[in-house]
Design a protein that fits this description.
Rossmann fold, alpha/beta, 4-stranded antiparallel beta sheet, Arc Repressor Mutant, subunit A, 5-stranded parallel beta sheet
């Protein structure tokens, strides 16, 4: 997704007073905001056109949200999905992330200006949404199945879990540009994680996560070809990392 073109977002929910204000903020990013007050109305819109972003906001989180999310993935697999919640619910949020929801925003973070900044920072920085492809072949032969959260390399299959899964998606969503340790620490990767990347091992939790990811996707983790270190900056996804 890129804010240079005209992208389209869909807000699903009824009675959110900040909707009009959010529309103005998103328009400044080149994003049109459509609304649907019910799931049935949203389903009809999703069948009629493609959306770059879907914001899901219900009074309470229930099975209907999960069913609706799977509908989005079937009808509009390229869409980024965000769930807006009145207050944090860690257990529910973990289940939503496990299903593949891209982001969850709770409490004051749903204020229109704050939400728009979050959307811009995480999804509209001119990045190419490589992680929206279900299967990706990496340099060296690793086959990543993002839908099943698996990676196959040298005949072995491994599950991509939690932080490691989100870390890989972050690199795929930000190809060919340097990513600093500080950027990763502040990203959604660590949402709901028991790990506090800025405090564990002198701030080296990110380094540890990168090493764990390399062990799963690099043919030779001691000589990385996919996620390359940049001295005193951080890391970068190699230009030829994706086949």
């Amino acid at each position: 997704m890129c804010a240079m073109g005209k992208d389209v977002a869909l807000h699903v929910g009824n009675g959110w007073r900040g909707q009009g204000c959010l529309r103005g903020h998103l328009q400044s990013l080149g994003i049109d905001l459509h609304k649907a007050s019910s799931v049935s109305a949203a389903k009809q819109k999703l069948q009629e056109q493609s959306y770059n972003l879907v914001l899901i906001q219900f009074e309470s989180v229930c099975k209907q949200i999960f069913d609706f999310y799977y509908f989005i993935r079937h009808e509009n697999p390229e869409a980024v999905t965000m769930v807006l919640m009145a207050k944090a619910q860690p257990k529910i949020e973990r289940k939503l992330f496990d299903c593949g929801v891209d982001d969850i925003v709770a409490g004051k973070q749903t204020f229109p200006s704050t939400l728009a900044s979050r959307i811009k920072r995480r999804f509209y920085n001119g990045r190419q949404p490589l992680s929206k492809k279900n299967k990706i072949m990496l340099k060296g032969g690793a086959l990543v199945d993002l839908e099943r959260r698996e990676v196959r390399l040298n005949g072995l299959s491994h599950t991509l879990k939690g932080v490691i899964y989100k870390l890989l998606r972050y690199f795929l969503n930000n190809p060919h540009r340097p990513i600093s340790r500080d950027e990763l620490i502040k990203s959604y990767i660590w949402d709901n994680s028991v790990c506090l990347p800025g405090k564990i091992e002198g701030g080296r939790a990110v380094d540890m996560a990168v090493r764990r990811l390399r062990k799963l996707i690099e043919p030779d983790p001691s000589c990385p070809q996919i996620i390359i270190a940049i001295h005193q900056i951080g890391w970068i996804l190699a230009k030829d990392a994706v086949r």
